[in-house]
Q: What sequence folds into this?
């Protein structure tokens, strides 16, 4: 069993072919679907055949019920807290061929209770894995729940991985590396590595971060991925070469592929390659999740 802790939101995906025209009209295709880093990773883990539970929060509203129903249909067990009087979070995702920008209202995700998280983790079998999206740690309202997840995982003897989540909020979360100190695995992309490790090559940044955590995976998009361990190991793999339709959720899918392999005994290089396979599958389709069952 892999437990994934973090956000479950509604994505409003705005796919624009050209540059956005400020103050005027920009043609786009607009779709509404489930999103959230943690929820996306959980969906890709289920797609990979892993038993997975999402620990998150939604509002007592129709979007929240729809988001839980989608994940349940995809094979994800949902330990989701329902919060009356709070709206389920929403993210507007502006996506082109090579980049995406997110405009975020985290909603109920900011109110997830540490007691809920602790209770959900306490029910996990010892020897499993907990994957924490960094978003709960990056916002004051949800930080107690993120810290509770790490504490509860340690108490259950779970192996822990953390995704750094997003560069912009990391810049104002100066204690992030202290919160995740000695965690088994930290995943970050190039922008997040710049914030956490300072300037340098990908290998230099990853090695620098192993002073804080035991293993670091640096996701480099089309340039592949890199794994550094505290004992001096360094592995790199190239990216899968596929036509890119939408980069949304590619990092979440990569994390799922990597965790699926690593948690069942694969070494760093094999885990990186498994991450690349799911990351390539994600960029080859529109949206942040695998195709729904039967689609």
A:
């Amino acid at each position: 069993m892999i437990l994934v802790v973090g956000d479950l939101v509604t994505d409003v995906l705005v796919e624009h072919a050209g540059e956005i025209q400020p103050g005027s009209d920009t043609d786009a295709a607009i779709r509404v679907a489930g999103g959230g880093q943690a929820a996306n990773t959980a969906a890709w883990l289920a797609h990979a055949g892993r038993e997975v539970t999402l620990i998150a929060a939604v509002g007592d509203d129709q979007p929240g019920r729809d988001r839980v129903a989608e994940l349940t249909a995809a094979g994800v067990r949902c330990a989701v807290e329902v919060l009356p009087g709070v709206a389920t979070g929403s993210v507007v995702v502006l996506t082109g061929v090579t980049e995406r920008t997110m405009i975020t209202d985290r909603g109920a995700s900011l109110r997830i209770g540490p007691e809920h998280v602790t209770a959900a983790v306490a029910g996990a079998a010892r020897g499993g894995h907990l994957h924490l999206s960094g978003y709960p740690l990056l916002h004051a309202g949800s930080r107690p729940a993120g810290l509770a997840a790490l504490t509860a995982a340690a108490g259950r003897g779970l192996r822990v991985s953390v995704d750094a989540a997003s560069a912009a909020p990391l810049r104002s979360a100066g204690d992030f590396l202290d919160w995740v100190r000695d965690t088994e695995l930290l995943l970050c992309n190039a922008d997040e590595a710049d914030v956490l490790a300072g300037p340098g090559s990908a290998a230099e940044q990853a090695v620098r971060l192993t002073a804080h955590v035991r293993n670091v995976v640096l996701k480099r998009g089309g340039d592949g991925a890199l794994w550094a361990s505290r004992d001096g190991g360094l592995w790199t793999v190239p990216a899968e070469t596929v036509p890119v339709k939408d980069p949304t959720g590619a990092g979440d899918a990569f994390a799922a592929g990597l965790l699926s392999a690593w948690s069942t005994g694969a070494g760093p290089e094999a885990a990186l390659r498994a991450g690349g396979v799911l990351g390539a599958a994600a960029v080859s389709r529109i949206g942040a999740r695998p195709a729904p069952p039967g689609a």
About this structure: The chain has one domain: 2-18+28-283. The chain has a mean pLDDT of 93. Residues 268-283 form the longest helix (16 residues).
